[in-house]
Amino acid sequence: MIKPEERFMSEGQSYFGSSENPETITHCNVWDWDQLRMIKVKGTAKLFPPDEDVEVSILARFADCLSPKVRAVTVDDEGLISEISTDLEEDDTMFIGYLSFSTAESLHDCRTIQYSKLQELDRLGPGVDLSAYHDESRISQKVAFKFNPIGKPRRLQMAWDELNLLKSLPPHQNIVPFDRVVLEDVENRVIGFTTKYIPGGTLDNSKLPFRFKWLQQLTQLVDFLNLDLGIMHQDIAPRNLLIDPETQNILLFDFDWVACGKKNLLDGRDDVAGMVFTLYELITGDGSFTSIPHWERNMETVQNISEWICNRELDSDVSTFRNFLNEWVTTRRSGDDMQRYLNAPNRLLWPDLPTPPDYNVPFEFGTTLDGETNWATGPRMMRTAMEKGQYVFRWERPPQSRLNKSENDV
Fold first, then answer.
1. Could you tell me which CATH number the domain at 101-196 has?
2. Structural domain boundaries of the chain?
3. Using one digit for the tens of pLDDT, what is the confidence trace for 306-361?
4. Which sign does the torsion angle of CA 242, 247, 249, 254 carry?
5. Which of 90, 177, 267, 364 could form a disulfide with 72 if both were Cys (CB 3.0 to 4.6 A apart)?
6. For the whole prediction, is pTM greater than 0.85?
7. DSSP secondary structure of 277-296
8. What is the homologous superfamily of the domain 212-342 according to CATH?
9. Beta carbons within 8 Å of 211's beta carbon, 6+ residues apart
């Protein structure tokens, strides 16, 4: 089940007047990762001050009780529902023009699975389900199904890059294996992908022990990605690390922040620094550095902490881990590490995200000063795409709590 603190994502507050006036009408769009839909929460600035995301805790109280048809709820200054709306015009969900598999040439060598063939077993986190399907030999396969239902340009780019990278990576004992491209059933559009499911949870769980050999494996993997393939993961963290129960190897996953050469490369998110912050968090349980913006973090601050207080079971002394890490960092930082990364001999390349043909369909966008219709192309709201008769893949689903209740009632 999705963690309660990860379930809702607010897009902020929109004020129809001064935010300092407590009576100003305020709208807050909140995305629900459990039900995969947007709900608009409406009230006043008194209840919804800027940047506090109060709307998340308010919606959490009654989200599971709302009809799937509800698009917006109005609450009073106590946070109690005073009105609901099923008007589609209240829904500000962005339309995603998912690419047809036939036009995504870079994916044509991938195996595929229809969305209807996936059986949902659990909801592991935002945009990741535990699913199962029967392969061509009728053997049941358990997989992690990753998808992006949010139409923001950055998220669309990340989803495209991760999918193309994973299908191109050579098999590696320390990377969760890619499985299949997932296609929706009506027009065979690419809506996500599956990877092998690794049970046991991530190393974000401090009760899981950590072995010295896993640090060695991880640094070797980072060297391979950076210096051989020219790839920067940019999000190495305990939550993105698993232990394979069959091989007892550490596994890295979640490549949606990946950089290829200079493309998507971000200051302060290089994998050497990521390794320092990750090992510190793994050993101490202190995740405070992850809350610091990546462009402001300094790995030397962590390296120079005199004592790392151990809060996890280790198979070697903390000093063994730290000495190995420091020697590796010194080796990587000696010479021009960035040039070695940029000149990687076996750089992986993939095409840029194509502009979805759906975005070339013109739609009405207000009027000109002369009162004539203004036509536009490009991204649009889901409701606009529906009005234009475009194919819209709908992600909405019942809350998991309702499914669990139904299963228990059987």
1. 3.30.200.20
2. 4-90, 101-196, 212-342
3. 999 999 999 999 999 999 999 999 999 988 999 999 999 999 999 999 999 999 99
4. negative
5. 90
6. yes
7. HHHHHHHH---GGGGS-TTT
8. Transferase(Phosphotransferase) domain 1 (1.10.510.10)
9. 314, 315, 316
